[in-house]
């Protein structure tokens, strides 16, 4: 199937394909993608963790040349505080990431100020979120090649809105054609169905398993109709009697069925599906209540932020740079998530790097998640007077041995 449709395509043809492939959200029973996937508690937890982590990290703008902060109130305000008139930045980022995982795609229209011209013309005013079900990507074939546009259908009665790609933030984490993303949940159909079957087995056991029994009528040959009648009468007596005893006569023999609880324990303790969900969504299994031996929670969390979360952070940074920065600014600036408070170095380690001339004071402040101080001295590198370059070591020793006299190198000791 095509991932985008031509403008002359029948609009009734594409929706079913999008739903079946998980591009549009679905609430159908047993769906492994879209909103229906949130019925699985492991998927709900994993999506909440990833979307919450991405949303809580501030997005900052930096200069390429020295990695210093750029005080761009208009853009960073939208990304970190208020994305539109009615949506906070946290809510907007959470919804975008959640939709990108569940359906493969998340969309927001960039509203720009039409009154601004020149270098300020690209500055956004707000981000207008649209659900995947309200969005369609159309291909337009021209003499210069194929182009595509985004079409949004608001649910408040407004007319359809058509936007160029540069005016749309389109988040996607996995794509095979660069146009549309695919949900990682598409690979979890068997695992999620296995979990559902296990839950249904437990539910049936607790609903009827404790009452399962064999009711015999010795010395009788009952036909199908008679057996059905006795079963219905006995089930009626059980359902209406509550905890009261069931009365049977001497012609009947009641034998309870023993249920092997080892099967139930196996269902209840099976973590295979949970591990598969964690693997597909790139989060450590301990976040889904699965024990991870031989590693501390701190080590697992740092590994998750350093090596797994970038799978989500990097596409978002690239998309924001592409859509929110002008071509000129992209050569000199970049966006990045501030995760220093999560995996930042200890203060003692930063101090050691500063004393050895590896970090300036402002670079050390950045590692701690603090803004730089506007003082030229804060950008200077420090060095200890107790060290000497290797190629000057012998010269320094000769100089020390001279006890203040000129050595054969011609350098006085008091100049060191």
UniProtKB/TrEMBL annotation:
Biased composition (Polar residues): 405-416
Coiled coil region boundaries: none
Comp. bias regions, Basic and acidic residues: 393-403
Pfam families: Phage_portal
InterPro entries: Phage/GTA_portal, Portal_HK97
Residue numbers spanned by region Disordered: 393-416
Protein name (record): Phage-related portal protein
Annotated organism of origin: Companilactobacillus versmoldensis DSM 14857 = KCTC 3814
């Amino acid at each position: 199937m095509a991932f985008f449709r031509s403008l002359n395509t029948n609009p009734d043809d594409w929706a079913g394909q999008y739903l079946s492939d998980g591009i549009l959200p679905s609430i159908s029973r047993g769906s492994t993608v879209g909103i229906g996937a949130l019925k699985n508690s492991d998927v709900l937890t994993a999506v909440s963790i990833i979307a919450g982590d991405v949303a809580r990290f501030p997005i900052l703008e930096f200069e390429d040349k020295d990695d210093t902060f750029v005080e761009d109130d208009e853009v960073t305000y939208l990304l970190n505080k208020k994305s539109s008139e009615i949506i906070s930045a946290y809510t907007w980022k959470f919804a975008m990431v959640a939709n990108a995982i569940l359906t493969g795609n998340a969309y927001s229209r960039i509203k720009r100020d039409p009154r601004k011209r020149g270098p300020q013309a690209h500055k956004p005013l707000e981000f207008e979120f649209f659900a995947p079900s309200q969005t369609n990507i159309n291909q337009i074939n021209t003499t210069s090649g194929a182009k595509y546009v985004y079409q949004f259908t608001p649910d408040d009665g407004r007319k359809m809105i058509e936007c160029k790609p540069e005016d749309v933030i389109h988040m996607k984490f996995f794509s095979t054609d660069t146009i549309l993303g695919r949900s990682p949940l598409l690979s979890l159909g068997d695992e999620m169905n296995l979990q559902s079957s296990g839950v249904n087995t437990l539910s049936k056991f607790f609903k009827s398993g404790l009452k399962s029994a064999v009711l015999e009528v010795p010395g009788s040959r009952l036909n199908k109709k008679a057996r059905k009648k006795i079963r219905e009468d006995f089930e009626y007596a059980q359902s209406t009697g509550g905890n009261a005893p069931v009365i049977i006569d001497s012609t009947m023999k009641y034998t309870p069925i023993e249920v092997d609880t080892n099967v139930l324990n196996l269902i209840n303790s099976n973590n295979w599906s949970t591990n598969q969900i964690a693997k597909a969504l790139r989060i450590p299994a301990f976040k889904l209540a699965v024990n991870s031996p031989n590693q501390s929670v701190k080590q697992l969390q740092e590994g998750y932020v350093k090596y797994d979360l970038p799978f989500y952070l990097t596409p978002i940074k690239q998309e924001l740079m592409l859509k929110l920065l002008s071509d000129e600014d992209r050569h000199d600036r970049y966006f990045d998530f501030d995760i220093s408070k999560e995996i930042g170095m200890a203060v003692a380690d930063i101090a050691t790097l500063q004393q050895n001339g590896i970090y300036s004071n402002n670079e050390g402040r950045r590692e701690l998640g603090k803004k730089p101080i506007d003082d030229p001295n804060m950008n200077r590198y420090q060095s200890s007077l107790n060290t000497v370059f290797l190629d000057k070591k012998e010269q320094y020793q000769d100089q020390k041995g001279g006890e203040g006299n000129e050595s054969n190198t011609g350098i006085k000791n008091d100049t060191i």
